[in-house]
């Protein structure tokens, strides 16, 4: 076109390197061939012509969030002659309508997190992992702490639900493992921690949480209830952590762990690998963290209980056995997520596994046969209708022996022999070995015989 200013059409076309006819065509219409294409019209009738403006648009205006599949089902219900093969057409048409005249959508604003400012806590359900402890399904959650800038993470297996005790203990474990404290601590509304509590108890827990934040000089913040994406710096890592655990379990080849501690070590190893990958950013953020206080603060609930003549005490609708010499005494109990530390005055007396209610209308039992065996030897028939008989047996072999003895020699003899088996396991510290021998005898059809067993 620049050569055409000084030459005729034929010469300009020759200098440009194309045919003369092309030069005359460009003279008439300088548009590119792609610009001359006329829009393709419809090849078949519009299947939505009769219902789009009359029915579909009013539905979209009244319920903008309605799914396309629901609209299609409604239109086909009204007009049976419309086939199901118009779904893609309907999806494209609705997508275009929403882009042109649909409602405004929510916008996610990406945030910048400077080092040392924000740490987040949350609990996540891990039932999808299908973890077993010695063959028994483990009902648990994970407490998850994370720094928004560096991605430093801390996770801990929580046996109960979301509670202030679990939050306080594991948050402190996280910051002490980190070696510093962020300026701000973000959590959800903690409604699960206050569930089923009256107003006074809720106020007490609120004050305790505020005290925990003051002790570590952290500013407490929380996202709005039901708006999980405001906690996005930890909600999304929940999924990444569970996927990493799932991959590690598949590589391990088994979801069954011998003990709870073994599973906790497994989780710590996976989280430790993630922290190692973020080592440089973690070290950068660690320098910006505030120093730790001189000591930890209380991460338990303190309760006072009385050991009754039943040989134990009830706490949170769970009965715990205790040594009979403590009957009538008041114990101070430090209630953690997974254990109870019991004190007589200031003297530590025992540590008990924390129990849970099997159902809202049924109490639980945490029974140690060692606390009761001396009394059962004096009253062996008490075993027959004991409320917590099933929880008394430390291993399935003893319960199996009791049922076999009842079937063969009657209730009285079964109670006496079973109590003697428990006493032998206690006196000789051979609970596991004795259980193996009992199982072997029962597998061959023999009942337990005390004389050879003692030998």
In short:
The protein has helices spanning 9-16, 20-28, 52-62, 68-78, 87-101, 164-178, 199-215, 232-252, 260-277, 279-286, 369-378, 389-392, 396-409, 411-427, 431-443, 450-454, and strands at 118-125, 132-133, 136-137, 141-147, 153-158, 184-187, 219-222, 256-257, 301-306, 312-315, 318-321, 330-335, 339-344, 347-353, 364-366. The protein has 455 residues and is an alpha/beta fold.
Task: Tell me what you see in this structure.
This protein has 455 residues and is an alpha/beta fold. The chain has five domains: 3-35, no CATH class; 52-101, no CATH class; 118-286, Ribonuclease H-like superfamily/Ribonuclease H (Nucleotidyltransferase, domain 5, 2-Layer Sandwich); 301-364, no CATH class; 369-454, no CATH class. It has helices at residues 9-16, 20-28, 52-62, 68-78, 87-101, 164-178, 199-215, 232-252, 260-277, 279-286, 369-378, 389-392, 396-409, 411-427, 431-443, 450-454; strands spanning 118-125, 132-133, 136-137, 141-147, 153-158, 184-187, 219-222, 256-257, 301-306, 312-315, 318-321, 330-335, 339-344, 347-353, 364-366. The strands form four sheets. Strands 5-4-1-6-7 form a five-stranded mixed β-sheet, with helices on both faces. A four-stranded antiparallel β-sheet has the order 9-12-13-14, with no helix packed on it. Mean pLDDT is 88; it is low at 192-196.
């Amino acid at each position: 076109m620049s050569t055409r200013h000084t030459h005729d059409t034929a010469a300009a076309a020759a200098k440009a390197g194309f045919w003369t006819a092309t030069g005359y065509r460009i003279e008439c219409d300088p548009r590119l061939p792609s610009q001359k294409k006329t829009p393709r019209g419809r090849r078949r009738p519009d299947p939505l012509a009769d219902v789009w403006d009359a029915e579909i648009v009013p539905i979209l205006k009244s319920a903008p969030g309605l799914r396309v599949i629901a609209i299609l089902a409604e239109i086909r219900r009204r007009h049976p002659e419309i086939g199901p093969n118009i779904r893609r057409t309907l999806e494209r048409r609705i997508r275009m309508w929403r882009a042109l005249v649909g409602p405004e959508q929510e916008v996610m604003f990406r945030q910048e997190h400077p080092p040392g400012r924000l740490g987040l806590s949350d609990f996540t359900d891990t039932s999808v992992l299908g973890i077993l402890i010695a063959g028994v399904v483990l009902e648990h959650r994970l407490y998850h702490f994370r720094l928004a800038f560096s991605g430093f993470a801390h996770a801990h297996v929580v046996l109960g639900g979301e509670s202030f005790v679990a939050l306080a203990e594991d948050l402190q474990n996280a910051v002490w493992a980190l070696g510093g404290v962020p300026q701000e601590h973000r959590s959800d509304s903690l409604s699960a921690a206050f569930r089923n509590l009256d107003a006074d108890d809720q106020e007490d827990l609120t004050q305790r949480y505020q005290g925990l934040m003051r002790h570590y000089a952290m500013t407490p913040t929380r996202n709005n209830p039901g708006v999980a994406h405001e906690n996005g710096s930890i909600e999304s890592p929940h999924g990444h952590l569970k996927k990493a655990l799932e991959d590690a379990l598949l590589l391990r080849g088994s979801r069954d762990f011998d003990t709870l501690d073994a599973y906790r070590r497994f989780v710590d190893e996976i989280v430790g690998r993630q922290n190692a990958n973020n080592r440089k950013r973690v070290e950068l953020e660690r320098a910006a963290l505030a120093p730790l206080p001189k000591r930890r603060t209380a991460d338990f609930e303190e309760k006072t209980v009385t050991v009754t003549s039943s040989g134990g005490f009830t706490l949170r609708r769970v009965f715990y056995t205790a040594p009979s010499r403590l009957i009538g005494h008041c114990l101070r109990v430090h209630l953690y997520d997974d254990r109870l530390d019991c004190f007589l005055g200031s003297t530590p007396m025992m540590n008990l596994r924390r129990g849970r209610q099997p159902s809202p209308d049924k109490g639980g039992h945490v029974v140690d046969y060692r606390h009761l065996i001396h009394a059962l030897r004096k009253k062996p028939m008490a075993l027959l209708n004991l409320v917590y008989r099933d929880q008394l047996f430390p291993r399935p072999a003893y319960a199996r022996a009791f049922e076999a003895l009842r079937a063969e020699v009657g209730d009285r003899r079964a109670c006496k022999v079973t109590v003697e088996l428990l006493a032998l396991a206690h006196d000789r510290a051979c609970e596991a070995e004795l259980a193996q021998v009992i199982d072997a005898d029962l597998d061959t059809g023999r009942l337990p015989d005390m004389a050879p067993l003692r030998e």
